[in-house]
Amino acid sequence: MAILAWNVRGLGNKETVRGLKNAIQKFQPEMAFLSETKQQKRYLEKIRMKMKMEQYFYIEPNGIAGGLALWWFKNAKINILKYGKNFIDAEISVDGESKWFGTFIYGPPYKEENREFWEFMSNLRNGSDERWLVIGDSNVVSSQEEKIGGASFNPNNARSYFGFVDTQGLIDLPIAGGSFTWSNQRCEEEAILEKLDRVLCSPDWNSFFPKAVTFLDIAIGSDHSPVIVLLKGFKRKYEDFKFESKWLLKEDCTSTVHDSWISTSQPRNSHRFGSKLRRTKFSLIRWSKLKSRINNQKKLELEKKIKSYQGKQLSKEELTPQNELNLQNKEG
Q: Transmembrane region positions (predicted)?
């Protein structure tokens, strides 16, 4: 049970569409929220159908600026309550569970409009006694720790946002996989990194989904990283992942780690390290499963040969399959 939220910075880019397709295939979210689509409904519908998402709701862009899309599968029952150019507010139930509220946001990039937006959001709900999730691009930096490079943090720019969070008693859920969600995609001293994308929830929502985890996926074709929320936490296969020291004896294990480690490019070390670890982990999971299937197939073939030799006096050459099978069993 997952939610994907991503400022795609325009879906006219084929690379961005491929990145979106990969994220939907990988995480299989019940709902996907896209901001800054910059595309009309007719074009977005073609992409949605390729992604095989079943339901939709759109906010058209203003010319080539803005635009929101909310896609979902039929197992998610979504009732749109209110909407505007910067938000979609809905009542949600997934797989027949109890209802909760979800507000999908794209905070205005301009200071005055941003202030008005958060003042509006402060009056949208009745407070922390409701199950409420707020997710998307806030276009707000809330502390100096949430940015590197560029102008210093100015708390006055976040005053309306703080008022919204405090009034509603919301929790800013930590996002794993990097401290920053947006980059100007430049290097070294020219790089600017900021945490703009957020997942906020009420205490009641947090209690309803106590195992919920939030993390970043790899940014492809956009200056924002996709945000993934797993409402019921990671599947056990990922929790139980352990690196086996015997893998180090395999040459292709070393190359798997090497290729995964160098394939992630982020402008600063603080953002790059988490992405490298995540990619390497999932690459090793895939590699170990493939290796296990190959080894199991080889064992079956050797066992078949050995069975055909049973009851016979074997030559040195015919003993080879037995020796190979013994070695494989020792290796695990």
A: 56-73
